[in-house]
Write a structure and sequence with these properties.
The chain has 29 helices and no strands. By secondary structure, it is mainly alpha-helical.
């Protein structure tokens, strides 16, 4: 008689463990709701200590060696560079500056780019913001010059030194994760408010792409070209100057372009620390809910960005043509001559404030039913319940859930990072406001991913739709972040939903691109095999294309989180509240500086935590691949 065969116990479905843990978490929440909530206190000891630290720094700026021999000299040099650029640009007069812009555009890309530059700069005067535009150009110019002076050599060095590249990668990651608000507090602490602090904040925000893209450009230079140069007896400097830089010219041009775009996107935020320029009208319009005030300044920044983007990209693509010098010289001479003959003030300004505000009022009244329904559906259906759960749950339960999620999708390291960030948020006395901000980010990211994935799938499956959508995405990604607040404010007024809506339309374009590229990157042979096996289009999408595009979709989620967090905080200017409001209040009221500084750190901590969770999910293999490897 044979022994009965032993059979292995059937494995539980993979949803059982998450479902069980979810039930346990719900039970713990219902049992301990309202306890361990760490409510917000405007007079927390941590805020007072940071404010007192600022007072101490201000008091000892003239007797501390750090300030006497280092910080004050940096402030002096940066301030002098800004003043020199500002004075020089204003001295040209509006005809001279327009002529110079047209000449540079002509040299960069021919008469079309020159005409774009002339038309674009003339539009700054027509909009009635010429003086502020020149100040903005000086601020951006000072920040970009310093960023390139530091970033390009460092990028070249990093491109030739893998050890340096590995060493600076975490620093650059940290700088790119930090929302724009987070740069302001330390700049005020060391450089006071004003143009130098604005230039330094803009420099720090815009320098990472200069380093990263330059390093990539140098790294991608053909090794055979370098070896050929060395075999001919060229020195290291000669190889750099005659091989590396010429071959990497196009990509380095992209580094310059991205540095300028990043600097322009920081201009508005820098006005919160009294940096001059167009940001003053934007902030004024946002604070008063007056689209008519902020629209000309916002359009001016967009126009300036388009002109600088097209000119720098044309210069990167094309080689210098001596024949263009004639047209460029004529433009400069004509501009300088006209500066001597025409009035110093811009002769004609388009009055837009009254009609724009009237149109916004009409739009709000005409579309109120639809916009209010959308706002209420998201606010009462998603945002308020989620915020209520996060703020009423015990801190230890939220910490355990976040760490568990990080461990589940990324492993031990993201879980440890999450716990450290949670502990720091508690230590900063900003737990409640951090949870409110986290709720806004989660809702915004969820809407962003749904919209981005759907649009990305549609573009990947329809070349005609992709061709229609691509120019719109290109235009959307060249606009500064604050521009998205304009339609949001016009449609929904100053509410938390306004910040969420603006963050969604800001973050959707890169998500759409990444999802589209991920699905298009699925090997055609795999798609054909699935189709030949009888898969329907829906099965092909859900069982083949989306799983194989997992990395691209997770990267899209990561980018969506980082961009949404930055924009939700910027939404404090239109009623977003929470940490963003704490930051703004800290800069506008000296007594709240400690709270504003701590809120900036809390935003960084949220960004790091969410970034590490999504990056961990990207690196971790799917569950089904683990099971296959065990068999």
């Amino acid at each position: 008689m044979s022994a009965p065969a032993l059979t292995a116990p059937a494995a539980l479905p993979r949803w059982v463990a998450p479902a069980g843990l979810t039930l346990v978490a719900v039970g713990l929440y219902l049992l301990f709701r309202g306890t361990g909530t760490l409510p917000h206190d405007d007079d927390a000891a941590q805020f007072t200590a940071i404010t007192e630290l600022r007072e101490w720094v201000d008091t000892h700026k003239n007797d501390s060696p750090l300030f006497l021999y280092f910080v004050n000299y940096i402030r002096l040099v940066v301030g002098s560079l800004f003043v020199a650029l500002q004075t020089g640009l204003h001295a040209l007069g509006w005809p001279g500056l327009i002529g110079a812009a047209g000449a540079l555009g002509w040299l960069a890309g021919g008469w079309r780019i020159g005409l774009l530059a002339v038309t674009g700069f003339a539009a700054l005067g027509v909009l009635g913001v010429w003086e502020l535009s020149v100040d903005t150009l000086a601020l951006v110019g000072a920040a970009v010059l310093l960023s390139l002076a530091i970033g390009l050599p460092l990028g070249v060095w990093a491109g030739r030194s893998p050890r340096l590249r590995r060493a600076i990668a975490p620093v650059l990651d940290f700088m790119q994760i930090m929302p724009t608000f987070a740069y302001l507090a330390p700049m005020v602490l060391f450089f006071q408010i004003g143009a130098p602090a604005g230039v330094m904040a803009t420099l720090i925000y815009s320098i990472p792409p200069a380093i990263r893209i330059t390093a990539l450009a140098i790294e991608q230079v053909s090794p055979s070209a370098v070896e050929a140069s060395a075999s001919l007896g060229a020195t290291g400097w000669q190889t750099l100057r005659k091989v590396y830089l010429p071959l990497a010219r196009g990509t380095i041009g992209l580094a310059i372009n991205q540095t300028i775009m990043m600097a322009l996107s920081m201009v508005v935020i820098a006005n919160l620390i009294s940096a001059p320029g167009l940001g003053s009208d934007v902030i004024k319009g946002l604070s008063r809910e007056n689209v008519g005030i902020m629209l000309p300044a916002g359009l001016a920044i967009v126009i300036m960005g388009i002109v600088l983007d097209r000119a720098t990209m044309a210069a990167a693509r094309e080689r210098f043509r001596p024949g263009r010098l004639i047209g460029a010289t004529l433009l400069v001479v004509a501009g300088l001559v006209l500066s001597r003959t025409l009035p110093a003030e811009w002769p004609w300004v388009l009055k837009t404030a009254a009609p724009v505000n009237a149109f916004v009022d009409w739009m709000e009244s005409s579309w109120f039913a639809a916009t209010d329904a959308i706002k209420d559906a998201v606010s009462y259906g998603l945002l308020n319940p989620l915020e209520g759960v996060l703020t009423s749950a015990p801190w230890w339960l939220v910490a355990a859930l976040l760490a568990g999620l990080a461990w589940r999708v990324g492993g031990v390291r993201p879980a440890v990072t999450t716990l450290v960030c949670v502990a720091a948020l508690i230590g900063l006395a900003l737990w409640e406001h951090s949870m409110v901000t986290l709720a806004m980010v989660i809702v915004a990211v969820a809407v962003t991913l749904v919209a981005g994935v759907l649009l990305g799938i549609a573009a990947a499956r329809s070349p005609r739709y992709s061709a229609f959508q691509r120019p719109l995405l290109d235009a959307a990604q060249t606009l500064p972040a604050f521009v998205y607040l304009l339609p949001a404010l016009a449609l929904f007024g100053a509410t938390r939903f306004t910040a969420i809506f603006a963050s969604v339309i800001y973050a959707v374009p890169p998500v759409v691109r990444l999802v589209e590229e991920g699905i298009r990157g699925v090997p055609p042979t795999v798609v054909e095999a699935a189709a030949s096996a009888g898969s329907t289009p829906g099965q092909l999408l859900w069982k083949v294309q989306l799983p194989m595009a997992r990395k691209a979709i997770l990267l899209a989620a990561n980018q969506g989180i980082v961009m949404t967090l930055a924009m939700v905080v910027l939404g404090a200017l239109v009623g977003g509240g929470a940490l963003g409001y704490d930051v703004v209040s800290g800069f506008s009221q000296r007594t709240d500086f400690g709270m504003g500084f701590a809120a900036g750190l809390a935003i960084v901590l949220l960004g790091i935590m969410l970034d590490r969770i999504t990056q961990g999910a990207d690196r971790r293999p799917p569950l089904h691949s683990k099971r296959m490897s065990r068999k």
